[in-house]
Amino acid sequence: MTDEQAAGTENETGADDEGSGRERRCIVSGAVKPVEEMIRCVVGPDGVVVPDIEARLPGRGLWLSARRDVVNTALAKNLFAKAARRRVGVPADLADRIERLLVKRCLELVGLARRAGRAVAGFEKVRGELKAGRGAILIAAADGAADGREKIRALAPGLPLVAVLKGDELGAAFGRDHAVHALLAPGRLAERLLVDAGRLAGFRTGDVTPAGRPLESESKSNL
Asked: Closest by alpha carbon to 137, among 181, 168, 81?
């Protein structure tokens, strides 16, 4: 098997062709990355490529770095067909479909955390939870004001800040029209959100700032 044929694929049982466990090779760049930083696609029964956000669908996996430009390059250069070793159909809006699925996944995680009493929204509630030592991930609306993100980050600079969901999306997860600030408590839901939000950041405006790293606006203000 050539490198091009092996790139970004796994066998039918789900085992990586290169035996690297939790890493896969991007069919565009050839870079080997953790699966948490990638998007898996498969060829459906109708011969059309579909995104498999949770990496559970049967079939040979076609893996890409979680970035809009990477998906669009794979589409433009017919790399899905090369990696699958067959003729396939690829939706022209595949990157948009991946973005929508990632948004849905992130909102589901926030909603699950809220219903379990593991998430709160609103600046004062976030501040109260942080004072009680129950915070793990700060969330700020991506379309909110930059000073608002700085304000909430100042409450807990040691926590990661997720800023990839829009205010109306975040609000929907909390059963309201709009939300700007939120907080998730420690646990698997918070860990999963950090992964999926990180992947979503490759498809839309916004970012996930790791714990302890200054916000981009803060870095610029210090120049």
From this structure: 181
Please list, in sequence order, all residues whose beta carbon lies within 8 angstroms of the beta carbon of residue 210, skipping any fewer than 6 positions away: 160
Domain carrying residue 118 = 96-221
pTM for the whole structure: 0.86
116-147 per-position pLDDT tens digit? 999 999 999 999 999 888 899 999 999 998 88
List of residues 6+ apart from 41 with CB closer than 8 A = 49, 50, 51, 52, 61, 62, 63, 64, 80, 94
pLDDT at res. 181: 96
**Packed helices 146-155 and 123-131: angle between N→C axes, nearest 10 degrees:** 20
Same domain, 105 and 84: no
Cα 198–chain centre separation: 4
Q: Dihedral (C-alpha) 9, 33, 113, 128: value to the nearest 10 degrees?
A: -170
Number of folded domains that form the chain: 2
55 touches 68 (CB < 8 A): no
Place of tokens 């993100």: 149
CATH number of the domain bearing residue 23: 3.30.1230.10
Instruction: State which of 92, 123, 155 marks the end of a domain.
Output: 92
On whether both 47 and 150 belong to a single domain, the answer is no
pLDDT tens digits, 177-218: 999 999 999 999 999 999 999 999 999 988 999 875 565 544
